[in-house]
Amino acid sequence: MDNREAKFILSAYRPGGQDASDSRFSEALEQARRDPMLEQWLRDSVTFDAAITERLSAVEPPPDLRENILAGVKVSRVPHWKNRLRKWTIAAALILGATLGSLIWHSARPGHLAGWQNAALGVISSLVRQQSSFDAQSHDTGELLAWLRANHAPAAQKLPDNLAKLSSLGCKTFSWNGTPVSVICFVRKNGELIHLVTINARATVDRTRRQEANLVQRGGWATATWREGDRVYMLALKGSRDQLRSYLL
Amino acid sequence: MNAIDFQQLVDRQYVPLYRFALSLAKSEADAADLTQQTFFLWASKGHQLRDGSKAKSWLFTTLYREFLTRRRREVRFPKVELDDAREDEIAISPNINALDAATVSQALREVEEPFRAPLTLFYLKQFSYEEIADVLDVPIGTVMSRLSRGKALLRRRLLSKDETLGNKVVSFESQKSRESHG
């Protein structure tokens, strides 16, 4: 080891002496003991490093930083029990929906709805039964719409006002005959769910190409289908058409 | 980690974290924000860390990654050619006693970023070269190289700020003016 190499290694030697027993420095330190010039260099280097450390240790953070950290985290943090409660609430809502949904779904005849609508209700049932999971989850519908757009999935251009007021749970996309379809699940005020399905108008059959909502009652499912721009939407919930109508406003 | 542990962690680490952030960020406000964000991430994700003894390393690593993420979002910084930062030895040492904390801190912030982060971690006395390698996710040899070169760069910056050496450049105009008046 020459002095240049020794200096290279000793540049990482901390001035506090914490590294004195580190074997990586042993040979370089030994060389410094043998070579007075290297020893002087090391002494100067350690003095310089200690002085820099001392100066930097005098840099004080803003006086309110500590309090801001503690207060900020306190405000932002969701306690674990709340997280658990939220998960259980969602799970309970999904299980309740699944129980009702499976009863109704199995007795429903799919003939009155278009293929993509049946496929969408199948996906929704799968979500409700927790046999599949959301592609993205957020209580902010805007975030879900942004996620859908970013992933080239059909996203609603405008939501009915009363639907927009609800908190979302998550979204899922699937392909129907090669056409992308998206589903967003919302939580209604009573804790039950309502689902918005979106598909490009080009992929649908003529009877869904109307701007006024076409309401269909299928056992416990109420669906409303309408077209707006180049999108066709289906809103679906477990309940009556009257309940569904309130979300079309 | 409960609330008391979190507070203890903040008390132990927020000052060195802030100093590290200050060496990386553009302003004190950015540094404070980076520090806060790091603790927020700890509060949201830190409980996943099973080994509590690695909390310090986790915080510094997270702060550094957060800094890199933010920097990527901003204008792409021109990459520093590491070979340009030569480690030539400097014959004259700055008079460190004449330099205050603010000046040293400023000089450190003027050192190019690839060298600044390991230097700060080193001078915070918090990290060995192995820990620096872990935090920055670079090989040990790279850490040693950057420390060696970084120290040379820091000396240069400090030298330029050290007015006690009396080697201030006097412009030709002012010298001529002095002669004509003398």
Structural class of chain B: mainly alpha
Largest sheet of chain A: 7 strands, antiparallel
The tally of strands of chain A reads 7
Helicity of chain A, as a percent range: 40-55%
Share in β-strands of chain B: under 5%
N-to-C SSE string of chain B, H for helix and E for strand: HHHHHHHH
Please report the two chains with the greatest interface, counting residues with C-beta closer than 8 angstroms to the partner's C-beta: A-B, 35 and 43 residues
Distance between the termini of chain B: 74 Å
Silhouette of chain B = globular
> Percent of residues of chain A in beta strands?
15-25%
Mean pLDDT of chain B: 74
Q: How many helices of chain A does DSSP assign?
A: 9
Rg over CA atoms of chain B: 20 Å
Largest sheet of chain B: none
Determine the mean pLDDT of chain A: 81
Q: Spatial order of the strands in the main sheet of chain A?
A: 1-2-3-4-7-6-5
Structural overview:
- The complex is a heterodimer of chains A (249) and B (182).
- Chain A has helices spanning 3-10, 23-34, 36-57, 65-76, 80-107, 115-128, 141-150, 161-164, 241-245, and strands at 136-137, 167-176, 179-187, 193-200, 214-218, 221-228, 231-238.
- By secondary structure, chain A is an alpha+beta fold.
- In chain A, strands 1-2-3-4-7-6-5 form a 7-stranded antiparallel β-sheet, sandwiched between helices.
- The model of chain A is unreliable at 105-111 (pLDDT under 50).
- By secondary structure, chain B is mainly alpha-helical.
- Chain B is 66% helix and 0% strand.
- Chain B has 8 helices and no strands.
- In chain B, 38% of the residues are buried.
- Residues 75-88 and 165-182 of chain B have low confidence and may be disordered.
- Chains A and B meet through α1, α3 and α4 of A and α1, α2, α4, α5 and α7 of B.
